[in-house]
């Protein structure tokens, strides 16, 4: 998402909870401990109990309580075929974006917001957060100029990572931006021009060898950073789910896609050579390009196939572990709310899930999706229906053992940060119905992950089980 933010911030700490996610945690313990009432009958009672308590609550069932319910080793997320695994168990993702965590963590007066958003996310079972590990040449810049860093901002990123671990939330860390927010490729162009390079447009970021070296030097610094709080190098820290090369890369000056493809190939191998333990993704929006003319029908418009990206070709690059797709029907299709948004989203997601299975053999994460309150005709009922449709499509893939590995809402905000809202922000305390949906999806995925681990098999979806009534019920 292309965005900017303002810089006046206040603090407010609140605690949220969800009876749904707490209930599933109890359920999982009972399953794994084999404490049954009487076989399937007992399972049905437990499932019924969870399903009967989906209401949002302000009870405190946050990260601390979840930690007490089970404490498996905190290990790296890995990929096994078209699924993610942790401790050799499947790991389907229900997550969120909060891009500004590092900048907020710099100042003690706003650092509490980082803790607050993780606490609230954990209370509804969210397990992955995507956020920026870059801020180039801007206010509170991490990288003030090429290879020159602000240690206080780096310490703020240390805090974000250590705080996420406390709430058992893993991070997808993006290493750059296509857009001007937080510097982006435009800032690299400015640095290049300041150094006397002959640059013609922002897309020279992808092709000029000096700018490529700037980017790689920054990657090297970030990956090798040793956290001042945990004393763990970033490249060794299981809290980091994956690295992202760039937020929504586009190269409109080269519709063939060759320039961007070359950049992805070089950078993917470079990141993996330095950190082979973590997963890597590109950060693409998912537009189909010239290599698959039969697929461009799924694009939201004709312009999207001219931006230099190519979903299947780009993701076949050595070193890329999973596919990334964004969903913005209200930006790409129409800014007026309608069923066309849901219809587009269904075909968009199903096409990418199928292609990730058939052509890529990897998981796909829908890394940004949401509905803006600024859309014409917006109402919360539609937003809930839209989120439900995304979740349902992913559950259908999960049931089949497919590549639909998860989704990340754009975006989750704590109380008191409304002035930062780009229209998509979800504040859980103000959105009880949406909070219920999020918690229920978390519940279903947690139960599925537990069932598969408990059965010690990947094809557990093939076994009929009473828990299916909760996992895959049509009405999310």
Mind sketching the topology for me?
Layout: E1 17-18, H1 19-33, H2 39-51, E2 56-57, H3 63-69, E3 78-80, E4 83-86, E5 89-90, E6 93-97, H4 101-106, H5 108-123, E7 128-132, E8 143-145, E9 148-149, H6 151-166, E10 170-174, H7 184-194, H8 204-207, H9 209-224, E11 240-244, H10 258-274, E12 279-281, H11 311-315, E13 323-327, H12 329-332, H13 339-360, E14 364-369, H14 380-399, E15 404-410, H15 432-455, H16 468-471
Parallel strand pairs: 6-7, 6-15, 7-10, 10-11, 11-12, 13-14, 14-15
Antiparallel strand pairs: 1-2, 3-4, 4-5, 8-9
Helix pairs in contact: 1-2, 1-15, 9-10, 13-14, 14-15
Describe this structure in words.
The chain is of the alpha/beta class and 476 residues long. It is 42% helix and 12% strand. It contains 16 helices and 15 strands. The chain has helices spanning 19-33, 39-51, 63-69, 101-106, 108-123, 151-166, 184-194, 204-207, 209-224, 258-274, 311-315, 329-332, 339-360, 380-399, 432-455, 468-471, and strands at residues 17-18, 56-57, 78-80, 83-86, 89-90, 93-97, 128-132, 143-145, 148-149, 170-174, 240-244, 279-281, 323-327, 364-369, 404-410. The strands form four sheets. The protein has an eight-stranded parallel beta sheet. Strands 3-4-5 form a three-stranded antiparallel beta sheet. The longest helix is centred in the C-terminal third of the chain and has 24 residues, at 432-455. It is globular.
